[in-house]
Amino acid sequence: MSNSNPLFRPEVTAALGSQWMGSIRLAQPASASLIAIVAMLIAAALIAYITFGSITKKARVTGITVPVGGQLSVAAPNAGILLNTHVKEGELVKAGQVLFTISTERQNSQGEITALVAQQLATRADSLAAEQRLRQTQYQEKKLALSQRLANLEQEYSQLEQELALSLRRQQLAQQSVSKFETLQGNGYVSAAQTQQKQEDLIDISTRLSTLQRNKTQLQANKIALQDELNTLANTLATDLTQIDRAKASLKQEVAENANRQSSQITAPQAGTVTALTNQNGQAINAGQVLASLIPSDTKGNVDKSKDDQTSAQTAGLLEVHLYVPSRTAGFIQPGQQVLIRYAAFPYQKFGLHTATVTDVSRTPFAPSELPPHLASTILSNAQQAINGFNSNEALYRVRVKLDEQSIQAYGQPQAIKPGMTLEADVLQDSRKIWEWVLEPVLAMTQHA
Fold first, then answer.
1. What is the distance, to the nearest Å, from the Cα of residue 138 to the centroid of all Cα atoms in its chain?
2. Does domain 111-259 have CATH number 1.10.287?
3. Strand locations in 239-377, DSSP E?
4. What is the pLDDT, as a whole number, of residue 401?
5. What is the pLDDT of residues 377-431, one digit of tens each?
6. By C-alpha distance, which of 408, 419, 403 is closest to 346?
7. pTM, rounded to two decimals
8. Longest alpha-carbon distance in the chain
9. How many Å apart are CA 449 and CA 34, to the nearest integer?
10. What does the record list as coiled-coil region(s) (predicted)?
11. Which of 103, 155, 330, 423 could disulfide-link to 397, CB 3.0 to 4.6 Å?
């Protein structure tokens, strides 16, 4: 083969000449393979999370703990000075037990007005008592006089009947005499003048008999009139005594009202635990001012005041949570949904979340003015802090929540939940797969197509 026509191209010869130190190999470290494997595992985990994972929609709301049976406010019926507080914070009381004594005394130039009025009322009471005794004495005297007159009439009536009997007998005899004289006159034994005399005697006896019968009728009428007068006298006395009793009852009412103006006692409307005592003895009290709150309980009979606070809380009744939510949140809240609670007094970072269950949702919202007076400011303030875009004039729906536990484990000891504790809660609502949330717009379009 000639030199002009080499067997290999010059480029091949040049390439072979440059590799005299060996072929080029690219090194791949083990870290690159590890990174690729980890990336594949992360991608697989992300795909599995999107496929099988789910997200639960939560409604964040605020609320407060309240007794299941409600909470009563004990208010002052009128203005005055708080003289004495007969109970202590957390004490169990019975229905009708005296809680507070309020002084309502008023002074003028002559002294304390209530005392002066009490003196006048006492004078009126004495006057009514004297009048009652006088009416009863007058009734006894009149009754005695009428009874004596009636007895005299009875005796006179008896004598008159005897006279009538004798007059009738005399009339019969005179009639027989007239008949005999008329027979004798017809036979010529007596004169006509003698017969006429006997007839005149018969007329006199008949006239006397008629007079006696008229007197008997008058006596009967007098007896009836006296008996009616006796009955009327008894009815008049009963009427007078009734009026006096009515006046005495009205006077007793005035006495009680006057005593109440001097000092009044406020009693417990029912058995329960007294809380929220904020006023001190000697402090001025306005009419309608709340002096304490009463948590009703089912405890009956005597109350053992030596029990500890935990036992008192248990006997005072269970607690529940009232959540107040705006309309944009209340639409999907339903009974039976789970609730996760974070108490302000027990930070969830340290004491965790606490479970509960929705039991009821109000059908109509509560205006801010319709919220419980002693809780309204707290509820609205918490709602403004926890709910974005909340308007303090917005109406709120009330959601009642049943607590799974009535106490919290804090540092190994159970701490009882107390009424009035503020809290935040997450109401667990709709739960969906992650891919459903991602593809929700596409699925919505498919359903509408």
1. 51
2. yes
3. 263-267, 272-275, 284-285, 290-296, 319-325, 338-343, 354-361
4. 92
5. 777 777 766 666 666 678 888 899 999 988 888 888 888 888 888 888 888 876 6
6. 408
7. 0.49
8. 235
9. 47
10. 136-170, 209-236
11. 330
